[in-house]
Amino acid sequence: MIIIYAPAAGEEQHFDAGPGKLRASEIQIIERTAEGRWPAIKEALSQGDINAMRTVAYVLKRRAEPTLRLGQFDPFEGELRVRLDKQETQAYAEQLFEKYQGTEDLEAAFEELRDAAFDREWAESAIADVTAPKDPAPAEPLPEPEMVPEAAPSPTES
Question: What is the C-alpha separation between 90 and 60, in angstroms, rounded?
């Protein structure tokens, strides 16, 4: 997940909370501050929960501003939003294709993916990947290689 902080008066900031992007100590701070366990907070984050977004963004923002206090980071409603990172975009494209393949809803689902991805190009690449023709499995199994029997030693070889 990538959290976007877009204050009305200021520069947009991006905080990557994807897999492997947070230290254990940061996760512990998030759990204490948000009063929950990390898996539940990640789920809330994916749903756009304001408490989860604010807490995770605050902890990541403290990397650059170590003296920042939670009370000093109080975004207005709508200034925080969550988007999918590249890996999540690919996984979501695969899920959507599997679920909606061959239906009228597939294009609408892909449009939702484009909107949910942090980078629209990631979504386009993922869509192209999942919709590309796949090599079909061979119709017949390939023949097993023949085993050549080992030559028996001749009686004169000893």
Answer: 24
